[in-house]
Amino acid sequence: MSTTTAPPALSSGSSGRAGDKFFSGLTLAAGIVILAVLAFVAGFLVLESVPALFAPADQISAGTSFFTYVFPIMIGTLITAAIALLIATPIALGVALFISHLAPRNLAKPVGYVIDLLAAIPSVVYGAWGMLVLGPLMVPMYDWLHTYLGWIPLFGEPSTTGRTLMTASVVLAVMILPIITALSREIFVQTPKLHEEAALALGATRWEMIRMSVLPFARSGVVSAIMLGLGRALGETMAVTLVLSPGILTANLIGSGNQTIPSEIALNFPEAFGMRQNELIAAGLILFIITLLVNMVARFIVNRHKEFSGAN
Amino acid sequence: MAKRIDAVDLNVYYGKFLAVEGVNINIEPKSVTAFIGPSGCGKTTFLRTLNRMHEVLPGSHVKGNVLLDGDDIYAPGVDPVTIRSQVGMVFQRPNPFPTMSIRDNVLAGFKLNGKRMSKSDSDAVVEKSLRGANLWNEVKDRLEKPGSGLSGGQQQRLCIARTIAVEPAVILMDEPCSALDPISTLAVEDLINELKNQYTVVIVTHNMQQAARVSEKTAFFNIAGTGKPGKLIEYAETSTIFNNPSDQATEDYVSGRFG
């Protein structure tokens, strides 16, 4: 057995790259799976929606056209999600900053855990809590709002059970709070020490340091965090279904009425068949498109300042 | 305007660990003072106590006094924010704010003081500071571009411009050239030579030639061993430190026998 060890030919070199090839194949497959699933879902939604989209007026439950049916619940969905974001975003960013930059270390950890724990609660529990606890708690506030701000159409005749769009929004706000908080905190703590010290060395106070170095650094990440929260708020089904006593679209946020797309689908889908089923799936398609648009707008906002993102 | 610094029996602690022990030093206004010494000997730690930047690390504290023109910067009731606006700092790696334009970087410290100023006033500050940092000619046509697009040496001079824009009394530099190439280093050293006409400059450097080139006085720090506190071994005219040091450790270090 006399083996002469010849230097490996430069062109063969496949043995050393087997792992690389395997790994790139694996990641490619993962990417394809995501796209395929998305395509199948989109295809299903479109195919099943077409009958409802072009159905004659008398077959549609609203009696006129699909769009008069879907418009009120679309608006309801958007309003609920928007109010939830308005409530949750400032709190979430405040808490995230507190944990990452302001709190003493032995306080920051427990607060962080509690926030993470909020994310672990199932949505049906949130729904039950909103219906049985939060709703009745909100009733006095709704009465107060109606008495003193009743001239604003938003605060019309208040509900006696508290099962209103406003209550649903508050529940949603609590649900998306941990998402926005946890992601923002992760990004805030990644701010380079160098940039924080640059601000401090110029004589910045802690808040000025946060405004000068932490927030600009975290900007795009925070937008993504908010969009993820918005995505959950738009799609949340169970909590809204339990909290809201649905009805027609009304500007009154503190009375019963209004409905969201996911809740509408959940309430009606089990008994639906034929055209009614197509109608509900078409409503789902609308929700899909809204979420897609929201994400594209967020991307656009993030990309607009690419040159100044600090990534270069 | 430029102020003198006196440290009196200064000990620096990280928690319970004594990092720097018993520093006594008098730094003259309008001069360049270099701190040299092997890694870990506490020269950067000591530098950061001069504008209370060491307090960024939780648990770090000092015993003793640092006097800025006779006023103790560690006296109770003294706000570190005020100290830092008088004692500016330039860091080891250039750190312009990446999300700000060159112009906004220069004005960053200025805006902190909450001063509202007219466009012409701020233009004047930007030009004066950038000229002061020998950067004006290179960037005057792209003031609105991000500061992170400049070369490393230009970024470091931008950081110096940002520091001198707020007209501090003292400028601390923590190995300002260690991330720069020789040409950029030369540009920054030339700048240091000009800065001493207006400011008290204190520079930490690992480069002994640099210390010899830019400074009037040099302080040599050393450490007896791992876990022991760093100490100021010798502080004298730069020429004395390099040619005729009185301490054996200093001579060994500057002649390259260790470190």
From TrEMBL, chain B:
NCBIfam families given in the database record: 3a0107s01c2 (TIGR00972)
One GO term (biological process): phosphate ion transmembrane transport
Name by which UniProt lists this protein: Phosphate ABC transporter ATP-binding protein
Keyword Ribosomal protein annotated: no
InterPro entries registered for this protein in UniProt: AAA+_ATPase, ABC_transporter-like_ATP-bd, ABC_transporter-like_CS, P-loop_NTPase, PstB-like
Superkingdom of the source species: Bacteria
Coiled-coil residue spans: none
Signal sequence annotation: none
Keywords in alphabetical order: ATP-binding, Nucleotide-binding, Translocase, Transport
Domain called ABC transporter: residue spans: 5-248
Keyword check for Nucleotide-binding: yes
Gene3D superfamilies xrefs: P-loop containing nucleotide triphosphate hydrolases
Annotated Gene Ontology cellular component terms: membrane
GO-annotated molecular function: ATP binding; ATP hydrolysis activity; phosphate transmembrane transporter activity
Cited Pfam families: ABC_tran (PF00005)
